[in-house]
Amino acid sequence: MYTIQNLSYAYGSKTVLSNISFTLPLGKVIALTGENGSGKSTLLRLLAGTMQPTNGKILYNQHPVTNLVSKHVSYMPDTDNYFLKRTGDQVFEFYDTVFDDFCLNKAYEIAEFLKIDGSKLIKDLSKGQRGRLKMAVVLARNTPYYLLDEPFSGLDPIVRAQLIDGLMEFTDLSKQTILLSTHELSEVERITDGLLLLHDGKILSYEAMEDIRKEWKQDAVSWMKSQYERVD
Ligand SMILES: Nc1ncnc2c1ncn2[C@@H]1O[C@H](COP(=O)(O)OP(=O)(O)OP(=O)(O)O)[C@@H](O)[C@H]1O
């Protein structure tokens, strides 16, 4: 399990995450949301161990997170320009050599489910096709945690819905956790257990979806708006 304690991060002199604490238990889908520049990608990079906190701690199973956490965590960065001269199938084969938990058969199954043509060079794929391929690569690993940075960004509603179906189909949400950053709250609401709302580098709210529905009597988007109204 992830435990984040008083986490802060600064790029040079610019503090972008400030004194953040929360836990991320197994078996949950958590949507990480917040306005542009609120620190979502930075938080995901830190959880994935690609950068170290400026202050505070990120613990994975009680050990400080380093880049070795990638053994337990399947991370999808928000970049869209990798392996351009390889085909999808070649990327699957590459990941299969890098990660013990990568399952080539599962990758092909996901590719079929998401209608990915693995024989095409990535540079020749549309943005939507690259988005699907990225999802297939990440989900073909069998890890306790999936960290997905804006997996639906720039994709049309049909592709977004397919990717959300793919998330449900190819993860075991009784024991795996997905933390995904997104601005498409209304679409992920159907699979979300909780919303983590960042504002200006701080946690504005971290609330279970069930409580938002039952106690706040709101849907995800109206709850988010009401949280922003508190600080405006
Ligand atoms: N490599 C970097 N060097 C310096 N500043 C950075 C770097 N990456 C991000 N920032 C700054 O950190 C702040 C948080 O950026 P981050 O990308 O984490 O936010 P975000 O919530 O993911 O934004 P968006 O929704 O636009 O993707 C922003 O002010 C951004 O300009």
UniProtKB/TrEMBL annotation:
Entry GO MF terms: ATP binding
ABC transporter domain ranges (all copies): 2-225
Key words of the record: ATP-binding, Nucleotide-binding
InterPro entries assigned: AAA+_ATPase (IPR003593), ABC_transporter-like_ATP-bd (IPR003439), P-loop_NTPase (IPR027417)
Entries under Pfam families matching the protein: ABC_tran (PF00005)
Protein name, entry field: ABC transporter ATP-binding protein
Organism: Kurthia populi
